[in-house]
Design goal:
mainly alpha; 8 helices; Ferritin; 226 residues
């Protein structure tokens, strides 16, 4: 039965990502296309059934809520530091990502770990420490700031891969995670392009070279990933 559910979920996700792709709006400066709201995503989720949540799924949602906030917060700070539009564009996208996870937390009546939405404030101490490290690195130069952005997206992709492939089973969670991962693919491409414009050929810091090449060359699911 679980395998049948997984097959059904996969089909729904593929259809959903296609819908989301056609509901995106472009932004200026040649950056990747980012959707402007989560309305279509939420409509899709409302059509699903909130199934029983496993402890690992709950832990994953709690962590992803703050991990997406970390990305948002770092990009807000780096935009203020370097005034590069890529950080401003993607920070808005990360806000939608963390909102999407919050939507699921509310749906399953799980307490939100973001008790303080201030930039740089985290409940998870590991994320708190990572935030400080990334801000320090990204404040040293524009190239390092762009490398921080790429590293965040690589880490996010790996964490989402783990949740999608090994943890999550509920249809609504898989829809959100696949959308977030498509977004991270797009964000990674944007940071790599911006590094190339700075004369840097980026080498992946966390992804395997093969997976990185697949993403950059567009072999992975593009989706909307707003």
């Amino acid at each position: 039965m679980k395998k049948l559910i997984k097959i059904k979920n996969s089909l729904i996700i593929i259809i959903g990502m296609t819908v989301l792709t056609f509901c995106s709006s472009p932004v200026e400066s040649g950056e990747q296309t980012y959707g402007q709201s989560n309305d279509v995503l939420y409509s899709m989720l409302d059509e699903t059934t909130a199934e029983e949540l496993s402890p690992d799924e709950e832990s994953g949602l709690l962590y992803m809520r703050e991990e997406e906030k970390l990305a948002r917060d770092v990009y807000i700070v780096l935009y203020e530091k370097w005034n590069q539009r890529v950080f401003n564009n993607i920070s808005k996208s990360e806000q939608r990502h963390t909102d999407a996870v919050l939507y699921l937390l509310n749906r399953y009546e799980i307490n939100d770990p973001v008790v303080d939405n201030t930039v740089g404030a985290f409940t998870n101490q590991n994320l708190q420490d990572l935030y400080s490290k990334l801000i320090e690195q990204g404040s040293s130069s524009l190239v390092e700031a762009l490398k921080v952005g790429a590293a965040i997206e690589e880490i996010d992709i790996l964490d989402l891969d783990e949740q999608i492939n090994e943890v999550a089973d509920n249809e609504d969670i898989l829809i959100v995670y696949n959308n977030l991962r498509s977004g991270s693919y797009n964000h990674l491409r944007a940071f790599v392009r911006n590094l190339f414009n700075q004369g840097i050929n980026y080498t992946p810091q966390f992804l395997s070279q093969a997976q990185f090449d697949d993403i950059i060359n567009g072999s992975n699911n593009r989706g909307n990933g707003n």
